[in-house]
Design a protein that fits this description.
By secondary structure, this protein is of the alpha+beta class. Helices cover 53% and strands 12% of the residues.
Length: 115
């Protein structure tokens, strides 16, 4: 009996993940294995944005998002090379990529402000 080769997907299908940041929902697409990190990053961004907003210095969502991204990136980079391994560096780069994606989502126009 001849066997019929099964076709395998070369990559796992990305999935849509909904996150809420400062009471606003965002739908993001990521590979299933990156979902936990994306959720953790979204929680970090939400926390930092709320802190910045509560400080009262900024009110514009895009400015708050940029400031949150900058302070989180600073925190990662200021950890410095002392005691860091290549695994930690790879994790930091992956976290920065996820933060960059979230910042892009925050800054992208979600709706028309003026009609």
């Amino acid at each position: 009996m001849a066997s019929v080769p099964m076709t395998e997907k070369s990559a796992v299908e990305p999935q849509t993940v909904e996150v809420t940041i400062v009471d606003r929902a965002y739908k993001l697409v990521c590979p299933p294995d990156e979902k936990p990190m994306l959720l953790e990053c979204a929680a970090m961004v939400d926390t930092r944005m709320r802190q910045i907003k509560q400080a009262g210095k900024l009110q514009s969502a895009d400015r708050i998002a940029v400031m949150a991204a900058l302070t989180l990136a600073r925190d990662l980079l200021s950890a410095g090379p002392s005691g860091s391994s290549s695994a930690n560096n790879a994790e930091a780069r992956q976290t920065l990529r996820a933060l960059h994606q979230l910042a892009d989502q925050m800054l992208a126009p979600q709706e028309k402000l003026f009609e």
